[in-house]
Amino acid sequence: MTARAEEPVPRRIDIAGHAFELRDLVPDDAAALVALHRRVFGEGASDAWYEWKYVRGGGFGTGMWHEGQLVAHCAGLPRALRVRGESRSGIQIGDVMVTPEWRGILTRRGPFFHVSQAFYDAHVGAGREHTIAFGFPSDRHLRLAVKSKLLHDGGPVHGLTWNLATARPQLGWRWAAVPLDERDARFDATVERAWRRMLAACGGQVLGERTTAYVRWRFFERPGRTYRAIALRDRWLGGAAGVAILDLTGEAAQWLDWIGRPVDLPPAWAACAQAAQRAGAKRLTMWASPAVAQSLTPTRIEHTAVAAWIGIPCRSDIAESDLARLDWWLTGGDTDFL
Questions:
Q1: What CA–CA distance (Å, rounded) separates 149 from 135?
Q2: Among the four 134, 150, 163, 336, which has the fewest Cβ within 10 Å?
Q3: Euclidean distance between CA atoms 276 and 149, whole angstroms
Q4: Would strands 86-98 and 69-83 be described as parallel, antiparallel, or unpaired?
């Protein structure tokens, strides 16, 4: 875990007659963090995962201890954002977790509240290193956080589904889909070209930067996952129009990210659907904020349901009156768990 300061000083918290200690985590807490993550979320966390996320990814967090055991945690990853064309240093919130025995303390200001508030207070907002943060809470988590004045409701993220048994994806003469290997000498230039096109087209939206360094770290350095990249080539204009990232390992293939212009999403969908069909998947799924889903309307989405919500810490340097006007561009790739 990236050190955020010298040795942190614990702060004592009393909740419903129980004593807790609250402080930022340090590298020596790695084993406790991995153990808590596995207990709360099941398999997935490991030493390699920790190295990827908290060392190379720069993750950092705040923890709550009871009798020497880590029982609650809130963390984030630094994420470079573009907010209506302006560069902002942000945090992607993650690994918010409380052990089952402390999750149900009969008070609104329990471990979840205190560990989250301490993290946001220390790391998010005007005058802080990171001025804005966002995460993907469940409906219950968001409602609790809104009532506790920890988060603003940033709106839904929808889960989109296409039935590949009935889909007839056609690219047409203009487009070609080409597998893009991260070891290919052209990989970096292709992703950077796609990111420049995306940036030029999304100036009015809020989106995380998708530079080559980020794409490599997020998708191709992560342990325990296998992702595929597809370059969508434009025969008319020449060169790559964009890059799609897919997980093709299950019956439901996941379209995790698109780096390119929103207007090119329909042919990108056709390329992804064809790749998923070749891999034997029965469905293609995608997490999409409303802006992303709107651009995919021509693809005849079969099913739409709320998959998560956008939670924005109240500490973020955003006027509450501006929240409804933020046009978030978010996909499953903007999480760290898909």
A1: 15
A2: 163
A3: 42
A4: antiparallel
